[in-house]
Amino acid sequence: MSSDTETISSKSTTAASEWRVCLAGEQDDSSIDRFEVRSAQRALALLKTKLGRERLLDLLADEIAAGDAYLRDQVARSAGEEATGTTTLHAHGITAGQFTGWLSQAFAREDVLLAGHPEHYSIHAGGGRVNIVETLGDHICSFYMREWDEAKSPEAPTLPADPNSTYGRRSRMVLEDGTVIGGIANAFTDVEGGFTASLSVTLPASCSPTVIEHHLEHFAVEFHNWILRAASELSARSDI
User: Fold this and answer.
1) Residue 11 domain-assigned?
2) Residue 70: which domain range?
3) Is 217 among the domain residues?
4) How much is the pLDDT for 11?
5) Is residue 203 part of a domain?
6) pLDDT tens digits for 6-65?
7) Does 87 fall in a domain?
8) C or N: which end of the chain has fewer Cβ atoms within 10 Å?
9) CB 129 within 8 A of CB 147
């Protein structure tokens, strides 16, 4: 019986790996995937707009409380030890200065920030801080980014060393009660035809490596979307 089951399982796996649906004349389903992504983005934008920030936060109150408890526990377990991960993107057709200039203005546009990632539930700037509610690993977390001009404080995360960086910034992530849970550091460097974005996240060392990996994937999605939007908007204004 075990042998028959294994044979059936093997055949099913082989068949599944061969199943595919694509547009006529194309070799894979990447175009259909893009259609789905755009549809999901439109649907989420509509739902977030209709619900509004306060209703979304009320809806996610229990999940946010659980996320806060998880992060406080990781801070206590780590006893000051931290772990950092970095991902690097390569942008074409736009300079680091053009993108960072656009991004600094975009932080006043809540709709643009929310559209950066499907799991941006709320991003709200006020009182000198930016409150971000997003998924971190398996938890929905609400944290605050300290002002970027606080980045030179001794407790700030290490900025990736790159003497050619056109622009770099770093900031600490804190909970509502002031508990420091980690930080982010970004460095943007001009290269031929575009720029590279080095994106780092620092979290308590006791967090599973998959949590850091998840946030690096998060970085890739949001900065991919923001860079393309910046290029599109700047191009429309003939800035690039």
Assistant:
1) no
2) 53-236
3) yes
4) 54
5) yes
6) 544 555 555 556 788 989 999 888 999 999 999 998 999 999 999 999 999 999 999 999
7) yes
8) N
9) yes
Q: Crossing angle of helices 61-78/30-59, nearest 10°?
A: 90
> How far is the C-alpha of 87 from the C-alpha of 89, rounded, in Å?
7
Exposed e or buried b per residue across 18-28, where buried means at least 16 C-beta atoms within 10 angstroms of its C-beta: eeeeeeeeeee
Instruction: Specify the number of domains making up the chain.
Output: 1
Exposed, middle or buried: residue 191 (CB in 10 Å: 0-12, 13-18, 19+)? Answer: middle
Which tokens hold the place of 180? 């420091």
Q: What CATH number has the domain bearing residue 152?
A: 3.30.530.20
Strands 120-126 and 82-92: unpaired
Backbone angles phi, psi at 180, to 5 degrees: -80, 120
Beta bridge partners of 191: 194
The amino acid occupying position 58 is D
pLDDT digits (tens, 9 = 90+) for 71-127: 999 999 999 999 999 999 999 999 999 999 999 888 888 889 999 999 999 998 777
Is the Cβ–Cβ distance between 216 and 104 less than 8 Å? no
